[in-house]
Each structure stands twice: as C-alpha cells, then as structure tokens.
Amino acid sequence: MAHERAKLSWSDVTPKAQFLQRRSLLAGIGASAVLGALPAQAKIAARPSAYSTDAKPNTFEEITTYNNFYEFGWDKTDPARHAGKLRTDPWSVEIAGLVERPGSYALDDILKNVTLEERIYRLRCVEAWSMVIPWIGFPLADLLNRAGVQPGAKYVAFETLLRPEEMPGQRGGGIDWPYVEGLRLDEAMHPLTILASGLYGEELPKQNGAPLRLVVPWKYGFKSIKSIVRITLTDAMPRTTWKALQPREYGFYANVNPEVDHPRWSQATERRIGAGLFAKREPTLMFNGYADEVAGLYAGMDLRVNY
Ligand SMILES: Nc1nc2c(c(=O)[nH]1)N[C@H]1C(S)=C(S)[C@@H](COP(=O)(O)O)O[C@H]1N2
Ligand SMILES: [Mo]
After folding, report:
1. Phi-psi region of 97 (alpha: psi -120 to 50; beta: other; left: phi over 0)
2. Which amino acids does the record list as binding Mo-molybdopterin (predicted)?
3. Of all protein residues, whose CA lies closest to atom 7 belonging to ligand 1?
4. How far apart are CA 25 and CA 261, in angstroms?
C-alpha cells in the first residue's frame, strides 16, 4: 500500500543527515531512474530545504485521517472517507487579475517547470491542535513571477474547486462556497509560502487538498486553502471564507499568535496530534515559530487589531 511505502521511505526512520545526503545524491544523478529501481522509495523526488523544521513529523496516517476539509463534511474523519470521489485529473489553475500573462494553466505544465522541494513545516490550526507535515512543493512566488505580477497588485486571492457533485459538503453547511482565501502580496511572495503538490514523497492525498494547495506555515491552518482552481491578483483585500462567516473570530491576517486569544479559547498552547492522551500541551510560538523569517512583514502593525 502507498501508505506503507511512504512510511518506509521517510526521514523519520532514516537519520536526518543520511536522508538529506540521499536526497541530494538523487537530485544529482537522475532521481526518477534511481527511485524507480529501488523498492520502498518515494515517488516524487524533491530537494531538501533549509526552511524545514527538525521537529518530528506526524505519521502519514495522522496527516491523512485527521483533516479539516469542509467540502467533504465537518468531522475530522469525513475528508478521508469522502474525498476519494474528487476527480483531480485533468486539473488546471486559472491565473487572473493584475498579471501580465493571465490564463488557464494545466497543472502538469506548472509542475514540469518548477523545482520541487521538501518542506517539513509545523501546521497550527486555529482550533489549537498542531502537526508537523513533510510537504512537497514549490514557492508560490515562482508561479506568480512567471505569470508576471502587475505593479498595481496588492493582494492574491485563491479559490477552491466548486463541484458539489463530488464535494458533498458543498450542498449545504452554511458556507458561501467555494472556499476562498487571500494573502497580502508580500506574504504571497515570501519564500516560506508554498504551493504543495505532495507530502511524504507522494502525490498529495485528496483529503489534504489534491492536487495543489497553499501552505503558509506562520498562519492558522485555515489560510492554507486546498484544491486550488483560481489565483487572482487584486488591488483590494479579497473576501475570505472564515472572516466572512465570523469576522470577530477570524481575521484576514490569521497569524499564529499565542498572545491574541480566540474569543472562545486560549491560543497560548496547542495539542500535538498523536502525542497521546497524557502528553502535555505545547506552548504555541509567535508566528508558529517562524518569527525570524516573517515578523518584519508586520513591523509597526497592531497585531491585536489586525488578527
Ligand atoms: N478548501 C478548503 N481548504 C482548507 C480547509 C477547508 O475546509 N476547505 N480547511 C483549512 C483548515 S481549517 C486547516 S487546519 C487545514 C488542514 O489541512 P490538512 O487537513 O491537510 O491538515 O486546511 C485548510 N484548508
Ligand atoms: Mo484549521
């Protein structure tokens, strides 16, 4: 099973230095040939990244069975049970708005022209649970630069697929579908911001947002929109799903911040999925531990007002 393969090929069971060495070796000598020849190897070759955390990743099973993907239901186990119906091939992404080369781009074409990296990132949900996920992806900036951002662009808006025939949650649920999200342009261009097409060295499982999803590791998980079909460069702050639903609880910025509580719960600590019933909650870190990289984006801003 794909599942077992992924577990075996993972750095978790390989000392990190050896893992990184193997990865760079593969990158140098034709990764796909070598990967094909070896049993129990990752299907997607990706370079290691200095942006990866050393924290121990969650298991493939945890990452793919405890999900938020309301298009498939509100329970954490709904996405794994229902996302199989989603057709992700063919897939294209429309790039629209204030860009030099707007159009509909085939996913294959996008992926052929980028360098995939492995980014092991912390994911902190606004609900105060967290995971560590080994994504495979590429900087969003690479795609935006290729599309050519026009000078007037200030924000980037993202849209998830709207297909209620395959996404049962879209037949109701109180959300104004499709799910939409957005970033300020400088956040979108930040090197930590990636589009992910895989995890644990494999194609992205559907419940995790196949075939292409955003990952913004210093923000609450709801910003990391799944199954993207449209990216629009705009001059005005776009509407975002959770802010539209509960503006006092969820803001546009949604930066992880242990000092700004959710109106209904504390954000000072988090529960690491898989840590066990008796594990202590962990302290939540400012910007989810990425403050050195991103705090400068918010210099002079009141983070209690801009939550
Ligand atoms: N389209 C879409 N994207 C989404 C969501 C969703 O319901 N629909 N949930 C968000 C939330 S709340 C979180 S915490 C993360 C969860 O990602 P994961 O299931 O891959 O861990 O996806 C985010 N992206
Ligand atoms: Mo979330």
Report:
1. left
2. 67, 70-71, 125, 160, 208, 213, 224-226
3. 69
4. 45
Pick the CATH number of 43-298 from 3.40.190.10, 3.90.420.10, 3.40.630.30, 3.30.870.10: 3.90.420.10
Q: Could you tell me the distance, in angstroms and rounded to a whole number, from the CA of residue 89 to the centre of ligand 1? A: 21
Per-residue pLDDT in tens (0 to 9) along the chain, 307 residues: 333 333 333 334 333 333 444 444 344 333 344 344 434 445 788 999 999 999 999 999 999 999 999 999 999 999 999 999 999 999 999 999 999 999 999 999 999 999 999 999 999 999 999 999 999 999 999 999 999 999 999 999 999 999 999 999 999 988 999 999 999 999 999 999 999 999 999 999 999 999 999 999 999 999 999 999 999 999 999 999 999 999 999 999 999 999 999 999 999 999 999 999 899 999 999 999 999 999 999 999 999 999 9
Q: Is the distance from the beta carbon of residue 71 to the nearest atom of ligand 1 less than 6 Å?
A: yes
Which of 68, 170, 197 gets mutated to test ligand 1 (max ligand atoms within 8 A of its CB)? 68
